Structures are given as structure tokens and as C-alpha cells.
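BUG: 3D viewer hangs when loading the predicted structure for this chain

Environment: internal workstation, default settings.
Expected: structure renders.
Actual: progress bar stalls at 90%.

Input used:
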Amino acid sequence: MPIDAAGALAAAPRVREIAWDHKDVQLYHLGIGAGRPATDPRELRYTLESRLHVLPSFATVAGGGAPGVIGTLSAPGVDVDLARVLHGGQRLRLHRPVPVRGRASAASRVVAVHDKGTAAVLVLRTEVTDADGPLWTDEAEVFVRGEGGWGGDRGPSGRPSPPPADPPDQVVERAVREDQALLYRLSGDWNPLHADPEFAARAGFERPVLHGLCTYGATLKAVVDTLLDGDVTRVRDYRTRFAGVVYPGETLRVRMWRTAGTGEARVAVSAVERDDAPVLADTVVRYG
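C-alpha cells produced before the viewer hung:
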């Protein structure tokens, strides 16, 4: 069996040193669609080094290494075909604001392996710490088609919850550039699914799709800009499930519901051009 659940769970954390600076942050922000309009003071917070703020989702690419969905495939006990892998979900917990420049230690290990019958789901947790203590905790949920059926724990339900029935408090739309995936991948996710039409076809898609983490970052930016007055330091926790794909050139519709008295916003994201096909589900941003 390509996935040895016991071996993956028993393996010691893999530790690597990561570093980043303002250029990495600026490239990431451009990769998720920041900088439009280019001279807007609200956008210059993401693109101009003299006033740079770091969107917390930058943590998913900090250090330029393989993202969690790719890193999971090189974990002990895991040997699967990349074409059968989908990013199922992502969670980020911030212990402190992400600095513009940093050096840190990232320790990653598989903390759960679920048997969904026709697929397996692995959860890779990464703890990032610098000289001053914990910075963030990142969890990637990786869905591997055709690797279930060994009788393991099924884990939590994979069925997304519907968005709130009430009208959203805010709705914004964000256009995705035709070359957005080509720009975003420069931050470290070189999966050919997002650039190579032949590989995308082998994976079952009509053409290359946008990185789920690009949509993840663009959505958090929309929430921060709309609900938090652009204050990136207020974000405490951000989680989502990837419910569908985005094709470069489409438009994201981001609907937001504030939860009164909780410091929490529910979010749903859909693709406008495909009759509001769901893209992100069960999305929650917690803030202070």
C-alpha cells in the first residue's frame, strides 16, 4: 500500500530552517492579486517596501519551500502519484504577526491519516518558531484519490456545510488575472497542475487551475481590507475547505458574515462565471 499510515504517524518531525525578506512578501502579495490599482494607498501597504504589512497567509509560502500539500508527499510512509492529489483544506493559527523579514525553524509532521474508502486524507502540521518563540501553526489537509480502503479511521465528515441563510454583511468581487497562477507559483509551489495543460488534463481538468492557496490568500486579503480596515495584525486564525477549482481569468465572489460578539467572520467564495460554483467552503476568519 503506497500509504503506510502507522509509519507516517510515527515518524519524527522534519525540521528545516526558513528565511524571508520584503521581496518574498511583495512577490506573494502580487501573486494573490494585490497592487490593483497600483497607486492606491491601501494597495501600497502590500506592495511598497517602505510601508509594507504582511498578510498572514504569507506564512503558507514563507521560506520558499514546497507547500504543505507537496511536502506531505515526501513524508515517511507516503508514496503517491501527484496527479491523484488534491488540497482538501488549510488552517493557519497566528501566535504573533508575521514580520517583514525573518528567520525561523519549521517542524513538520503528519498528525492524522484518515481512510475515506475511495481516498485517503492526510493532515500535515507545521510549527514555526523563531528566536522569540512560536510564530504560527499551519495545517494542510491533503486528499489522495484511490488510496483508501485499508480499514482505518474515517475522521471527520468531508461534507462542506452550507453558508449562512441570512444575507451577507459584505460582498466583494476580485478578478483573477489570466497569468495569476504563473505569477503565484514563483513563491514556491511548482506543481505543474497550475501551469502545464497536459499535466492538468492527466489530473482530470480542462486546463491548468489556480492554486488553492492563491485563492486562500486572495480571500483573506478581501476580508482584511473589507472587515478589518486593512489591519493584518488582527487576524488570529484562518481556516477553509477547498470546495472547487478556480480557473485563471475568472472572478471570485467573496461573501462575508460577521458573527456578533465573537470576533469571527464566516466566508463563502464562488466563481462568478460558473453560476457561483463553490470554491471555498467552511471558511472562518477569527480576529482580535
